[in-house]
Amino acid sequence: MRRAIYPGSFDPVTNGHLDIIERGCKLFDEIIVSILVNPDKQPFFTLEERSEMLSEVLQNISQGNCTVRVDSFRGLLVNYAVAQQANVIVRGIRAISDYEYELQMALMNRRLEPGIETVFMMPAETYSYVSSRLVKEVFQLGGAITGLVPPVIERRMKEKMNQG
Ligand SMILES: Nc1ncnc2c1ncn2[C@@H]1O[C@H](COP(=O)(O)OP(=O)(O)O)[C@@H](O)[C@H]1O
Ligand SMILES: [Mg+2]
């Protein structure tokens, strides 16, 4: 049983994240997409909203025999992974710029918990420049984000902006 954790902020989930999850499904029996609760960061969407949005869009991706579920965690990722009996952490690498930070985290996590491997996956080139941060920025300035996030996420962003 290969169980992997795919941790992140998912604020909001983008097509880049979904691309990584679909690819991960070819390697793992189960992927727990887990939202990191970071008390120091002020997210655009609440934890509940991010979780709901993830669950909604995950219904429309091709998962094969893989089970994908949504969860959240606080504190050390490796502790969470052990508690979930997962021995793999999945991370997406877009460009060299991601590599430096991801390498540091992967090596630190290995030091903390040698039994857990970090697996880096590359998205389709189309999504290699897509980040939640950029999607929010462009959207807030009135730019089109169609194709970068699923339609339901675009709708949620419109609603959220009109609220506040
Ligand atoms: N467009 C993308 N293509 C591939 N991987 C991505 C993309 N966007 C984000 N990721 C990866 O998904 C994971 C979660 O990203 P994110 O939600 O931004 O959380 P974090 O706060 O951990 O960076 C990270 O490994 C990130 O590099
Ligand atoms: Mg990020």
Q: What would your notes on this structure say?
A:
- The chain is an alpha/beta fold and 164 residues long.
- It has one domain (3-163): HUPs (Rossmann fold, 3-Layer(aba) Sandwich), CATH 3.40.50.
- It is built from 6 helices and 5 strands; from the N terminus they run βαβαβαβαβαα.
- It has helices at residues 15-25, 47-58, 77-83, 96-112, 132-140, 151-163, and strands spanning 3-8, 30-36, 67-73, 88-92, 117-121.
- Strands 3-2-1-4-5 form a 5-stranded parallel beta sheet, sandwiched between helices.
- Strand 4 (88-92), helix 4 and strand 5 form a beta-alpha-beta unit.
- The model has no long low-confidence stretch (mean pLDDT 96).
- The structure holds adenosine-5'-diphosphate and magnesium ion (MG).
- Adenosine-5'-diphosphate binds at residues 8-10, 14, 16-17, 20, 91-92, 94, 98, 123, 127, 130-132.
**Number of extended strands:** 5
Any idea what the CATH superfamily is called?
HUPs
Cα separation of the termini: 44 Å
Bound molecules: adenosine-5'-diphosphate, magnesium ion
CATH class: Alpha Beta
Major β-sheet profile? 5 strands, parallel
Question: What letter string, H or E per element, gives the SSE order?
Answer: EHEHEHEHEHH
What is the helical fraction, as a range of percent? 40-55%
Record the strand order, biggest sheet.
3-2-1-4-5
Query: What does the average pLDDT come to?
Result: 96
User: What structural class is derived from the secondary structure elements?
Assistant: alpha/beta
CATH topology: Rossmann fold
Task: Write down the domain tally.
Answer: 1
CATH architecture: 3-Layer(aba) Sandwich
What gyration radius follows from the Cα positions, in whole Å?
A: 15 Å
Please state the overall shape, judged from the principal axes of the Cα atoms: globular
* Helical stretch tally: 6
Ranges where pLDDT stays below 50 over 5 or more residues in a row are none
Share of β-strand residues: 15-25%
